Amino acid sequence: MDSQIKEVQDYFINKIIERDYNIVDSDGYTVTISIDKKYYFEIWISNGANNIRTYNNSFMQLDFITEQKEKIMKDLERDSNGSLKKNLLKQQKQIAEKLNNLK
Predict the structure, then answer these.
(1) What's the pLDDT at 55?
(2) In the predicted model, is pLDDT for residue 96 greater than 90?
(3) Chain-wide mean pLDDT for the chain?
(4) Which is more confident, 87 or 61?
(5) In angstroms, rounded to a whole number, what is the distance separating the alpha carbons of residues 26 and 30?
(6) Where do the structural domains in the chain lie, given as residue ranges?
(7) Which among 10, 51, 63, 77 is most buried, taking Cβ atoms within 10 Å?
């Protein structure tokens, strides 16, 4: 049983390392990602790479090694900032459309 759990954990860790996930939410302290559009992981990013870990509402606990933490931190910061920018631009466009409809 332990080897099967480890195999599943490795599957999800590899998905994260390969950036094969979607950003669902980010609040500056955590980034929530989905893998395979079904499994959600909330990852703590607030205190730097050494403290990266799965958090509260994660599908399962994942244990990252130091090298993985550094890569994951860099990728999640970049991806979550890009996702935030995309969402803000979308909201800006929606607001502009609403303003145009008021005229």
Answers:
(1) 87
(2) no
(3) 86
(4) 61
(5) 6
(6) 2-102
(7) 77
Report residue 7 as tokens: 């195999």
pTM score above 0.85? no
First to last CA, the chain: 65
Contact 58, 73 (CB under 8 A): no
Secondary structure of the chain in HEC code, one letter for each residue:
CHHHHHHHHHHHHHHHHCCCCEEEEECCCEEEEEECCCEEEEEECCCCHHHCEECCCCCCCCCCCHHHHHHHHHHHHHHHHHHHHHHHHHHHHHHHHHHHHHC
Residue type, 98: K
Q: How many residues does the chain have?
A: 103
In the prediction, which pLDDT does 47 show?
85
Q: What are phi and psi of 47, to 5 degrees?
A: -105, 30
